[in-house]
Each structure stands twice: as C-alpha cells, then as structure tokens.
Amino acid sequence: MAPSSQAAPLTLFEKLWRSHLVRPETADTPAVLYVDLHLVHEVTSPQAFDVLRGQRLQVRRPDRTIATMDHSTPTTPRQNGRFIITDAQCAAQLSQLETNCAEFGIELHPLGDDAQGIVHVIGPELGLTQPGTTIVCGDSHTATHGAFGALAFGVGTTEVGHVLATQCLLQRRAKTLEVRVDGRLGSGVTPKDVILAVIAKLGVGGGAGHILEYTGTAICSLSMEGRMTVCNMSIEAGARAGLIAPDDTTFNYLASRPRAPKRQAWDRAVSAWRRLPTDDGATYDSALAVDGTALEPMITWGTNPGMAIPIRAPVPGTADPAALRYMQLEAGKPVLGRAVDVVFIGSCTNGRLSDLQAAAAVLRGRRVATSVRTLVVPGSQAVKRAAEAEGLDRVFREAGAEWREPGCSMCIAMNGDTLRPGQYAVSTSNRNFEGRQGPGGRTFLASPFTAAAAAVRGFIVDPREML
After folding, report:
1. What digits encode the pLDDT tens for the residues 369-387?
2. How many CB atoms are located within 10 Å of the residue 416 CB?
3. What pLDDT does residue 2 have?
4. 461 with 314, same domain?
5. Cα dihedral sign for 160, 163, 168, 170?
6. From CA 352, how far away is CA 358, in angstroms rounded?
7. Looking at residue 210, which CATH number applies to its domain?
8. Residue 7: band (very low, low, confident or very high) from pLDDT cuts 50, 70, 90
9. Does 345 share its domain with 424?
10. Alpha carbons 407 and 413: distance in angstroms, whole number
11. Which residues form the domain of 459?
C-alpha cells in the first residue's frame, strides 16, 4: 500500500515552532528560532546594549524591536505635568534606555508618551501582538501574548543581547500540555480565578518543560483581556509559555488596532490565522482537565502562586510550615476575615480596562476602609485614558483609593510602591514570593473583584457578597 500523502495533524505549538525554525536542534545544540517581535524595557536591556557596543554590532532588526518604560517608572500623579522619580537607580535605568534607543534606532515609548505603559499591555493594544508570530522580551510574563496564538517567551539579559544582534533565539523544543477548562464560569469567578485554580492543580513545577495550550468552552468564552490574564501566569506553573488558539474574538480585538494589518493585508492575515488552531486528531504530551462550573473565587495563602485555595476553603492541613510562618497563618483555618493593610489593583496580569471596570463595580458608591491603602494603577496610558473617559477614576477617588500613573508599581515594589515589613496586601499581580512587594511584606494574590471587596471591608471577603 502506498504511504498516505496527508500531513499528520499538528498542535498550535507545533505549527508555530515549524514556521519559525531556522535550524533544528541536535543532541548537542538547541534549535535556532526566528523572532518576529522583540519587546524591550529598561531593566533587562542595559547590559545587552553594552554587549552590542563591545562587539561593535548593530541591532539586526530595529523595525521589529519596540521599547517602553514600565518597571522603574513612578506611578505617583504628575506634579505640574512632570514625573517625579525619587529613586536614583530607576532614574538611571530610564535615562539609559532613552540613550540606547536613540543610538541604535529603536522606537521608544517613554514616560508621558501616549502609548507608554507596561510592555505586555501596550503590545496587544497597539496591535503589535499578532497570531502566528514569535515574541520575546526580557520579562518572564511575556507569555501574556500567547493569548493571541503567538509563541511568546520571556528571556534573560544575555538572550536579549542575542536577539538584538541576530533576531534569533536559541531554544530546546518544549513538550505540550493541554489545559482544558470546560463549563460556564459562575458569578464572581474571573480569568484570574481560573489560572490560580490551574496553578494550584499543576503546582509551580507542573508545567516545567512544557508549553501550555488552554482549550475548552470556558476559555473560548473569555474576552481577549481575560485570555491575557490566563496566559500571563503560565510561567507561575513552571511552563515555558502559554497559548490560546486565535478565533473571531481575537480578530475582532485586533481589527481596529493601529499596528494590525490593513485592507487586503488584513484579509490575508486572517485567512492565515484561521489555519493556526490545533488540528483535529493532534495529540499533546500531557493533559489537565478543569471543571469551570465548579470553580470559585480563588486566593493564595502562601509564598508561591501554587499555594491557592477557594476563598471559603481552609488553609490545607498539609501546608508548608515555612510559608505558614512567613504569612502568620494556621493550617486548617480560612483566610476569610484576615485584616489587610494594602490593596493593589494593577500589573500586566490585571491592569487592563476590564480589570478596572471589575474593581469599580465593587467600589462604586462605597468607601475604602480607613485602615486600608488602595492603589489603582492602570497598565498603560491608553488604559488610563479609557478609564477616565468612563469616569472610573472618579469612582476610585470617591471611594478613597489612589488613582495612579501607569507602570509595574507594587507588583515589583518599585519607586516607593511597597509594603512595609509585616503588612498584608491583597494584590491582583502575579507573584507572592517572600518580599516580592517589599521586605517582610505578605501578599495574597486574587482577582480585581476580591481585591476591591477586601479594600472596602478591610479584610478578606468572598467578593460574591458584594456583587
């Protein structure tokens, strides 16, 4: 019998990998992958540019390289139109990025620019993030862009230099893990709760060596901003990246974006993008199934994102003693009712317009508890403008929250946006490691609903009571 000429079915990841493979890997060397888009910020790039200078190299594709200021930027309101940078190291990083971009011909969105913001927020909103592409950035939450069906990796400073010089990346081929979430999400259950539940099941190492592809009816029903939240935290399960197949929701989001293809180029692009989803019959190396209808609002109790529980559940009896000591919690007891000092709403995980709308839905007509400092930090200048156009800034201010300028802010404890030792925070960010939000600070990760509810009550509460 003659062999079949029909191609074997492929997963989304396999299609992306094959279409960008410059040189396959061997037993001794990793594969060489072409990079379509390189996103740059001020923290992980200075040494990379110094390497270029030392080797007398130019940036290979400045037209495929975009920079913004986000990690070291102050989020306090401007004074007389000016940003006040109190940290000398942060000021130096921002100044150096400006110098580097000018020298090497790279497009930069500096402080105050209309398109400035967190790198993983502005890429999608500008239409730079597109299905079928490869994207890298010197930041571990680059997986965010996988929500569009893009293969997006966080890389280290050395790799940032390699990509600047060659527009290629050395990679070992990852395995695939399908995370299927089916069913309709209940009231008060958000994409943040979905991904915290997934990480709680997988553990912080369960995705190691894998690309996670999120599938199922619950995932397909999410908005693009919700999908970005899910993919953003793939790295917290140890995964190399996260993916969601592009569909009409994706195309509708991109259609009006300034950097998206136009006219006939748009039609050609959409036609190609429709061929990206995993083929029927393709297989994954591993799989995890989650019942979306059974999910509840989630919250972390410990010192990594895998230490998460439904908000009304007790801390597990098998909880890590070291994490309990740091958080000053007891196994077998709930976190409900735990007093909090600070609430942070923002970050590349939950700093988009829909996240701010969710927080405002809880805060509207209510006041933040006098014992709680509440920071609301939009993910970009575009998000800030859109929120203000809807009057969300007034909702936050009238509730007693601080309305800030865009930036990474308290997610990484920059420019004074920090916890004091011993303080508890409910945060919509992505990491709750010891000291992540300030030395001795204790972080509960949760959704914008849960964070806003805690701000009003002054303690951790099931947000469904306030919706």
Report:
1. 999 999 999 999 999 999 9
2. 14
3. 46
4. yes
5. negative
6. 10
7. 3.40.1060.10
8. confident
9. yes
10. 11
11. 297-466
